[in-house]
Amino acid sequence: MSIKNTFSFFLPDLEHKNGQAFVSDGIKAGFPSPAADFDETTVSLDNVLVKNRETTFYAKANGNSMIGAGIDNGDIMVIDRSLEPMNNKIAVCCIDGEFTVKRIKIEKDCVFLVPENKEFQPIKVTEENELIIWGIVTYVIKSV
């Protein structure tokens, strides 16, 4: 089986743990408080986003089928391959040799890969399909 790779997968860089400045008390999104003191420490996003170092990958989303789930074209997904696929989880799947990201919907006798965009149709997984649940999406990193 040849696999059409529409994603580029990356490993977390766990060697550089210096981190970036982090305001742990949060920053007000409403009216600013001039008296607020900032307790600035550092944070490494790899340490926050990666729970299982050996099984976590990053991949860039390619397409718009998951915009309703907050995954836009170009977003970076954090994918953990050690998590159990469950109903309603968002997963990177390989179906018939092509990677896709969809929500898993498990019904009594059937599994669907469901997009979060009405312009796309759910994929009904049948016995004729070869489906590999590659990993579960745990976080999405996006630009604003």
From TrEMBL:
Keywords: Autocatalytic cleavage, DNA damage, DNA repair, Hydrolase, Nucleotidyltransferase, SOS response, Transferase. The keyword DNA repair applies. It is an enzyme of class 2 (transferase). Gene3D superfamilies: Umud Fragment, subunit A (2.10.109.10). PANTHER family: LEXA REPRESSOR, LEXA REPRESSOR-RELATED. GO terms for molecular function: DNA binding; DNA-directed DNA polymerase activity; hydrolase activity. InterPro entries: LexA-like, LexA/Signal_pep-like_sf, LexA_repressor, Peptidase_S24_LexA, Peptidase_S24_S26A/B/C. It holds the Pfam family Peptidase_S24. This is Translesion error-prone DNA polymerase V autoproteolytic subunit. Its EC number is 2.7.7.7. The gene is umuD. Residues 26-137 form the Peptidase S24/S26A/S26B/S26C domain. Belongs to the peptidase S24 family.
